[in-house]
Amino acid sequence: MPLGGDLLVLAPHPDDETLGCGGTIWRARQAGARVTIAFVSDGSGSHSGLLDPAELRETRRREATAAAAALGVEGDDLRFLDLPDGHLDGCRAEIARRLGSLIAGRPPAALLAPCRWDVSADHLAVARAAAAVAGPAGLPVYGYATWFWDRWPWTSTRAGSWPATMARAGRGAWRLASRFRTVVELGEGLEAKRRALAQHRTQVERRGGDPAWPILADVAAGRFLELNLQPVELFAPAVPQARGRRRRTQA
What digits encode the pLDDT tens for the residues 136-185? Predict the structure, then answer.
């Protein structure tokens, strides 16, 4: 991971940049790198039926700006593409076009985008667009994990015999180690990541104390957030690479 080189981070929704690679962003900024964050969707679909989409869109933009500042990224290094939340798969050509323009203006050393195993359609659309554009440009893409964690065996269990359960868990651990070849140790970046996540208030606090307002801590009874707030962040290549030892970036 070139923490001293310029990075372009693609966030399908405001908060993905923090959950998936917030500590890495902070570390890169501490190393003097320029980091640009592109928020692909407008974030207006996270609480459908509970808040007017236009108000939610503006609220999440303010939250994203504050969270990015907590990670050391401000001003002209933020891009809001404002594509429709929940419909990014139908916007892949537009995402690729916008991404191409960003790269052409000032090519980064690498792109950070969702990994190709995230379970969200929006995330997969961004991952595919990033791979399609970065490949011809010769840029490496590091895939970060967010909703990847919301799956068995990380955040759920399955009924079955003890040997079968242990065998499945072993396969899950092997897949994790074989897919995510780059490990960034966050050090103080973990606290910066927590501070940034706290700025995404619509995602971490119940608006007006409304029990019907969903937050990230509700997912898998808090296990999802726990996995996204580990002292390391894991990255996978956009395309399969030969097996080898994990590359670890020390704090």
Answer: 889 999 999 999 998 877 786 544 443 444 345 555 565 677 789 899 99
- Give the chain as a 3 state SS string: CCCCCCEEEEECCCCHHHHHHHHHHHHHHHCCCCEEEEEEECCCCCCCCCCCHHHHHHHHHHHHHHHHHHCCCCHHHEEEEEECCCCHHHHHHHHHHHHHHHHHHCCCCEEEEECCCCCCHHHHHHHHHHHHHHHHHCCCEEEECCHHHCCCCCCCCCCCCHHHHHHHHHHHHHHHHHHCCEEEECCCHHHHHHHHHHHCHHHHCCHHHCCCCCCHHHHHHHHHHHHHCCCEEEEEECCCCCCCCCEEECC
Sketch the domain layout of the chain as residue ranges: 7-150+180-249
CB 79 within 8 A of CB 38: yes
Assess whether pLDDT exceeds 90 at residue 105. no
CATH 3.40.50.10320 fits 7-150+180-249, yes or no: yes
Q: Which amino acid is at 29?
A: R
Strand partners, 234: 183
pTM for the whole structure: 0.89
